[in-house]
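With this grant's support, we have settled on a layout for protein records. An illustrative entry appears below exactly as we store it:
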Amino acid sequence: MRVKLWGVRGSLATPMSSALLREKARLLLSEATPGDLKSPQAIEAYLDRSSHSWTYGGNTSCVEVELDNQTFILDAGTGLRSLGLKLKEDGRDLSHQLHFFFTHFHWDHICGFPYFGPIYIPDRQIDVWSGRSDALRLLQTQMNDAHFPVKWEMLKSKIDCHQIAEDVPTAIGDATVRILPLIHPDKAYGYRIDHRGRSVCYLTDTEVSKNPNRVAESYASFVEGADVVIVDAMYGFLDYHDHINFGHSTIFNFIDFFRDAKIGELVIFHHDPMASDPQVTRLYMDAKRYTELVAPTASWTLSAAREGQEWMLPPR
């Protein structure tokens, strides 16, 4: 199993502004020494170790899970366009079974779908999975009427939509998929994908922070034994209290939920579109300190999601 993040931002795509780019350049230049700039190799080494030479990214939710001859895609935010280009580059746009898994159908999670190259390949089979029964109607809506120049009925690919039952594991190819109802406006579902002894959990968008005690046990049970657990952590603790009922959470509740869970890595995901890279880093550092306080014996590591982040998980 290979897991890669193509979009990690919540609610709205957030391209880096010129002002933020200049700030990064200013910090890079101010911290560089003459030795850091003496050769192309020295410059590359400096950029590799500097915290100012990269960004968490501004694309909305899209996660790739590659399994042998299948590619699973969790949500279709703006990050999907780059994934589609990569699939074309390495031939998987034609050779792999392609499966989409939608948490829900708010715009930031579906707006990349019309820009996904394989949907324009004649007779290309694409399977769409969701906990809802009306996924086809919802995807058609954003491409029909005056919303998009290419209408759904003009597509030459074969797109089949399937509903996943909430209470039973579903076999999809060589993998097993389970869903978990989440707490979000207009209904959302989390996913767990198991394949050859490895597993990834994807739990965005959900507002566990409103009633944490009510859902703690079910969430902890759902992720137990997973290698990678990606969670909605859009807000800091104080920010959340200004956004109650928006359908999003803080990382601190998930740390509480999973303090005793046997998981590999807990990933802060669905970054606030208003949060700069330093603000996301600050949230991550606060979460690390909180973990040290409340879960000092936790077996898992913590990270803040960034575009291009990847996990290689060989079969067990």
